[in-house]
């Protein structure tokens, strides 16, 4: 019998996913980066966060969407 293997999560993918869960609707790149730093002490690049978010989406762990710009996210 053949079984489909489930996607495996790396350590950093787990940190990003936990940040997303913790932040809920407020989960966007910069907030996730800050959450990771606050909880783990790791200083990570924003590019690493976005690359990992894309990977998690490809693996089916989350979905993303583009929202309206806000002052908190660098908009007006």
Q: Ends: how far apart?
A: 56 Å
Structural class: mainly alpha
The count of strands amounts to 0
Rg (CA only): 14 Å
Number of discrete helical segments: 3
Strand content is: under 5%
Mean pLDDT: 87
Helix content: 40-55%
* Unreliably modeled segments: none
Give, in order, the helices and strands.
HHH
Largest beta-sheet details: none
Overall, the morphology is globular
Compact description:
By secondary structure, the protein is an all-alpha fold.
What's the topology here?
Layout: H1 11-23, H2 29-40, H3 46-58
Structure, explained:
The chain has three helices and no strands. It is globular. The protein has helices at residues 11-23, 29-40, 46-58. The model has no long low-confidence stretch (mean pLDDT 87). 50% of the residues lie in helices and 0% in strands. Helix 1 (11-23) crosses helix 2 (29-40) and helix 1 (11-23) crosses helix 3 (46-58). The N and C termini lie far apart (56 Å). With 76 residues, it is mainly alpha-helical.
Q: Which key features would you list for this structure?
A:
76 residues, mainly alpha
